[in-house]
Automatic annotation (TrEMBL):
Keywords: Metal-binding, Repeat, Zinc, Zinc-finger. This is Arf-GAP domain-containing protein. The lineage of its organism: Eukaryota, Metazoa, Chordata, Craniata, Vertebrata. PROSITE patterns: ARFGAP. GO terms for biological process: acrosome assembly; intermediate filament organization; spermatid nucleus differentiation. Residues 39-159 form the Arf-GAP domain. Pfam families: ArfGap (PF01412). Gene3D superfamilies: Arf GTPase activating protein. GO terms for molecular function: GTPase activator activity; zinc ion binding.
Length: 179
């Protein structure tokens, strides 16, 4: 039986349904689709110089995606993000699969957009970014950023230390993508 599964942003892909709702074309088809989405995540990493550095500490070589806010982070910061309240949903770029909704969410965000929102009023002259080698300072910085929303600018106008544009995203854009 053929079925159509529409994307959350209006895109649609046709998926053959087998008995019980599984993919009629087997695991090879699902593996190919998963590889397409994983490749698109890797494309997001290489699309912008900001996406090649950890959004949290600035270290080169991102290995995880913070699905909660749409940023790219290093291994150390991924663990710290999981320890927040509420914990951020973090996925490995190379060891996991991504859904269409997650990829579209990440493409709409990335580190520059996250910087404009989550560090919108951050001033590097009066506040310091943490050293990733100091777990306590990193944790405090992340709590200030996400739990207390110390530098939060929902419209992304502050620019996070001079970076940013006055683009007003729709209010729904920062919601967590569906699981």
């Amino acid at each position: 039986m053929g079925g159509s599964r529409g994307g959350i942003y209006g895109g649609a892909s046709t998926v053959e349904q087998g008995p019980g709702g599984g993919g009629g074309q087997g695991s090879a088809s699902r593996d190919a689709e998963a590889e397409v989405w994983s490749r698109r995540v890797r494309d997001v990493v290489s699309a912008s110089p900001a996406n090649r550095r950890c959004f949290e500490c600035g270290q080169r070589g991102v290995t995880y995606v913070d699905i909660t806010v749409g940023s790219l982070v290093c291994t150390g910061c991924s663990g710290a993000l999981r320890g927040l309240n509420p914990p951020h949903r973090v996925k490995s770029i190379s060891m996991t699969t991504f859904t269409e909704a997650e990829v579209l969410f990440l493409q709409a965000h990335g580190n520059e957009a996250c910087r404009r929102v989550w560090l919108g009023t951050f001033d590097p002259r009066t506040s310091a970014r943490p050293d990733a080698r100091d777990p306590q300072r990193l944790k405090e910085f992340l709590q200030d950023k996400y739990e207390k929303k110390r530098w939060y600018d929902p419209w992304g106008e502050g620019g996070g230390g001079g970076i940013g544009v006055g683009v007003h995203p729709p209010p729904h854009i920062w919601r967590h993508p569906p699981p």
